[in-house]
Design a protein that fits this description.
about 150 residues, alpha+beta, 2 domains, about 35% helix
């Protein structure tokens, strides 16, 4: 009986496909990458050929589904770039909360007047005139920073 192959992921960039393949191989699933040569030589053809495909044996498909769902869950956890607290919108930034050490911190958007004043101060080589309002998504701790 011959084993068939199933495509479990398609990617635009070769590095994404190889990272995905390495995760599956780390879990003991043999993978094969298809169409990476054409998209490397002619990247504009990636959409035409359907992207770079990561294929596995159909017998490993159930095991791969569990791993793929874990990867998607981790990806979705860090994908939120904005949160809304009350009527205020905050953008994600890198750093840590001083209260709970969470990496899920967000900075409040400047209003137009503060933005203009900050640009003028930067042009004059002055320090920022306003501190940014920062909030932690996990514990809702608020603080100010430059």
């Amino acid at each position: 009986m011959q084993d068939t192959f199933v495509t479990v992921g398609t990617f635009t960039h070769e590095t994404e496909a190889y990272l995905f393949r390495s995760r599956l191989e780390h879990e003991g699933i043999e993978c094969f990458i298809a169409d990476n040569n054409i998209t490397t030589v002619h990247p504009f053809l990636s959409n035409a050929v359907g992207g770079i495909k990561v294929n596995i044996r159909s017998s490993d498909h159930e095991k791969a589904k569990v791993i793929i769902s874990e990867i998607e869950e981790q990806s979705n956890k860090h994908q939120s770039k904005k949160i809304k607290v009350g009527s205020t919108i905050y953008n994600a930034i890198e750093g840590y909360c001083p209260n709970c050490d969470s990496e899920a911190i967000y900075v409040k958007n400047y209003d137009l007047i503060k933005l203009i004043i900050s640009v003028i101060a930067a042009a004059c080589l002055l320090p920022p005139p306003f501190k940014k309002d920062v909030i932690c998504r996990d514990c809702l701790h608020k603080w100010k920073k430059y």
